[in-house]
Design brief:
Bound molecules: NADP nicotinamide-adenine-dinucleotide phosphate, guanosine-5'-diphosphate-alpha-D-mannose
Strand content: 15-25%
Radius of gyration: 20 Å
Oligomer: single chain
Shape: globular
Order of helices and strands: EHEEHEHEHEEHEEEHEEHEEEHH
């Protein structure tokens, strides 16, 4: 029997790199990781895979239909896992067109290539709780309406519709999971969790060495998110791709925390016992008479998603999927990793 082939886009990112690790460990499939051309090397999440004979890099870009078309035609993948995106919600107001081009039109480019060259290929597109945006009820389930609040959320919602249209028009196995926030030591440094653990690790080291430091500056610390570990989610994606029928599910922890809860958990790990003072833009965290954390309105968004809390009961019942890593262990792992790498 021919070895199965999996194409993963976004392989240099958090989820793509964990997906490659997971599939190299759990299957004997050949993995193709798509990377885009960059002027400097961007492989830190996949350095450990570069000499693996079952892992091969291919060059393409979701904004370039010919590259996607060529890759699918040449590889003829059995699975196409599209984890590439302009994934930072905050930046999507500054680069709305590019965000839509990559996150929505890019998905059409993938679907067209599959339709033409590999119609039996199973396609996964990375959907997001940002599509639900200004939520009507909590916890949210798969029936919740799409109410995006950001250009990023709107692009992912458009992608969800086009995936459904291709599934129904051409009988493709094409799905878009609906995933709540997931993090890890491989998380990009501008996302709030990694920004917190990285900068608090730096502050901890500065305190120990008695050198000056800049306070950690944040925006809305009362936004609530349903945070899990990315390793748990790549397993869920793989289960979704291997069902009999192309059904779409929510993956979430079913618990929600404020950004401030995340900060407090990380401060606990670093053993920094200060106090929060004042409110609103004046709110600060003080330790030994120094400001460690302060609010900077620059990090507020033009429109905020205040609360996300997912109901993953369908994934639990039907896919037998449950997240294994708790919020507390996630924060500890990220904080420890950043401290060790200071
Ligand atoms: P990430 O770490 O930011 O990775 C994004 C990846 O996409 C990177 O490898 C990036 O390549 C690549 N990429 C960006 N633009 C591209 C383009 N034009 N062509 C080809 N590749 C491109 O994101 P992540 O956290 O792993 O998220 C994976 C997917 O899940 C994304 O679609 C994201 O929107 C979605 N999602 C994430 C979460 C979450 O909480 N993490 C939740 C719901 C949905 P470079 O390294 O070259 O920049
Ligand atoms: N990034 C960032 N930086 N966010 C901050 C800051 C800050 O300084 N201060 C407060 N926040 C708040 C944001 O306003 C938001 O409410 C929350 O922290 C989380 O922000 P991010 O970590 O940037 O993630 P996100 O929830 O906007 O988006 C992530 O999750 C989505 C799924 O819900 C990304 O991974 C998206 O790609 C993903 O789709």
């Amino acid at each position: 029997m021919m070895t199965k082939k999996v194409l993963i886009t976004g392989v240099t990112g958090q989820d793509g790199s964990y997906m490659a690790d997971f599939l190299l460990e759990e299957t004997d499939f050949q993995i193709f990781g798509m990377v885009r051309r960059t002027s400097t090397n961007n492989n830190k999440n996949i350095t450990h895979l570069l000499n693996n004979p079952r892992f091969k890099l291919v060059t393409g870009d979701l904004t370039d239909s010919q590259s996607i078309d060529n890759i699918v035609r040449e590889i003829q993948p059995d699975y196409f896992i599209n984890l590439a995106a302009q994934s930072f919600v905050g930046a999507s107001w500054q680069i709305p067109e590019q965000t839509f081009d990559i996150d929505a039109v890019g998905v059409i480019r993938c679907l067209e290539a599959i339709r033409k060259h590999a119609p039996n290929c199973r396609f996964y597109n990375a959907g997001s709780s940002e599509e639900l945006g200004n939520v009507d009820y909590s916890p949210q389930d798969e029936k919740h309406p799409l109410k995006p609040r950001s250009p990023y959320g709107a692009a992912k919602a458009a992608a969800r519709h086009i995936v459904k249209v291709y599934r129904e028009s051409y009988n493709l196995f094409a799905i878009q999971g609906l995933l709540y926030n997931h993090e890890s030591p491989r998380r990009g440094e501008e996302f709030v969790t990694r920004k917190i653990t990285k900068q608090l690790a730096q502050i901890k080291k500065s305190i120990e060495e008695n050198i000056d430091f800049k306070p950690l500056q944040l925006g809305n610390i009362y936004a609530k998110r349903d945070w899990s570990h990315a390793k748990d989610f790549v397993k869920g994606i793989w289960l979704m791709l291997n069902q009999k029928k192309p059904m779409e599910y929510i993956l979430a922890s079913g618990k929600t925390y404020t950004v401030k809860d995340f900060i407090n958990k990380s401060l606990e790990f670093f053993d920094i016992n200060g106090i929060w003072i004042k409110e609103g833009l004046e709110e600060k965290f003080i330790y030994q008479n120094k400001i460690l954390i302060e609010i900077n309105p620059e990090f507020y968004r033009p429109a905020e998603v205040d609360l996300l809390l997912g109901n993953a009961n369908n994934a639990k019942k039907i896919l037998n999927w449950t997240p294994q890593i708790s919020f507390s262990d996630l924060v500890k792992e990220m904080s420890k990793n950043d401290l060790m790498n200071m």
